[in-house]
Specification:
The chain is an alpha/beta fold. The chain is built from 3 helices and 6 strands; from the N terminus they run βαβαβαβββ.
Amino acid sequence: MPVSARSGGVVVFLALSRAGLESFKFLRREPGFALWVGAGVLEESEIEELWAEGANVSIFAYEISANDAEAVAGAIDTIKEHHPHAVVWIEYVAPDIAFAPDSKTLRPT
């Protein structure tokens, strides 16, 4: 049986931007989700707020660019060390899509 939040496992979401964070906020309504984000995605107050809400949030000590396959692969390796049996979802934004100024919506470039 595949590991899932519903079956009691952990699903880890690697958010690479604020838009990814907003997707996680929607998904985390289901118990068993964990969020990992690169440095600089969240303000300290936002991290504290998520922790206060009971969210399972881990922050990398470095930034992770969605365009840096090596950095993303390294992040996945680190996540798998901490959650060896978890399903890992990775935010992906196509190269021809950019974030709108409010950082919560996408628009074609």
